[in-house]
Structures are given as C-alpha cells and as structure tokens.
C-alpha cells in the first residue's frame, strides 16, 4: 500500500508529527476507509526513510485519539470514528480560550459569539 506520505526534514516540524498529521488528514477525510490496513511500522519507516520509532509514535498517538486500532494479526487498521473527531490541538486551544474568557469576565454566549464572528471573518 502506498500512502503517499512525505517527511520533509527541513520543515522544522518533527517527523513523527508530519506522519501523524498526514495520516489524520487521510482518515478524517475518509480517504482511508474504516478497516484499511496500514503498513507495518517497519515498512512505513523504510518507505519514508525515518526510524521505526517515528512511525510507532505517530501510530500510537492516532490510536490514542481513536483513529487507529491494533487488530492483532491484522496489524494496524483505520478505526471507525464513532463520535465527531476533534483534534487534540483544537481542544487545547478551546480550553485556553474558555479560561481566558472566564478570566476577563465574559459569559459563554459572548465567548461563542466572538468565535462565530472571528470565523466569519477568516472563512471568507
């Protein structure tokens, strides 16, 4: 299986994160179907020219997020996403925003309105 993943050693982003983010995008966009078997850690590491630890970390993080599962002899497969997937980074940013809004005395409705207004500006 050729996943068309790339690792850019000059990007400044850790290789495991690049692999993680590319796989996450393929899974959440349904370009990788539920049950799709991924290459072994060693095989993907060879294909990408990175260490097995790099791929193992990406797989582990995606498994923790519920996007992959280890299926015994079948290897690592794309998991069924039973809830709306929210990236951990977005959850962390939302938590920081909510805490900041509470610190300055803003209620929930006002905070949500601010996000909605900002989204409209950035979306167009």
From TrEMBL:
Keyword check for Cell division: no
Keyword DNA-binding appears in the UniProt entry: yes
Domain of life: Bacteria
Pfam families, per the entry: GntR
Database matches in CDD domains: WHTH_GntR (cd07377)
Alphabetical keyword list: DNA-binding, Transcription, Transcription regulation
PROSITE patterns: HTH_GNTR (PS50949)
Domain (HTH gntR-type): residue spans on this chain: 13-81
SMART domains per UniProt: HTH_GNTR (SM00345)
Matching SUPFAM superfamilies: Winged helix' DNA-binding domain
Protein name listed in UniProt: GntR family transcriptional regulator
Native source species: Allokutzneria oryzae
């Amino acid at each position: 299986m050729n996943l068309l993943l790339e690792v850019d050693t000059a990007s400044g982003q850790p290789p495991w994160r690049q692999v993680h983010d590319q796989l996450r995008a393929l899974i959440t966009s349904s370009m990788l179907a539920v049950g799709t078997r991924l290459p072994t850690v060693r095989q993907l590491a060879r294909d990408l020219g990175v260490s097995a630890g790099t791929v193992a970390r990406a797989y582990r993080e995606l498994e923790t997020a519920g996007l992959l599962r280890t299926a015994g002899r079948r290897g690592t497969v794309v998991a069924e996403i039973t809830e709306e997937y929210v990236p951990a980074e977005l959850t962390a940013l939302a938590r920081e925003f909510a805490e900041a809004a509470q610190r300055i005395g803003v209620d929930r409705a006002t905070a949500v309105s601010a996000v909605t207004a900002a989204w409209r500006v950035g979306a167009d």
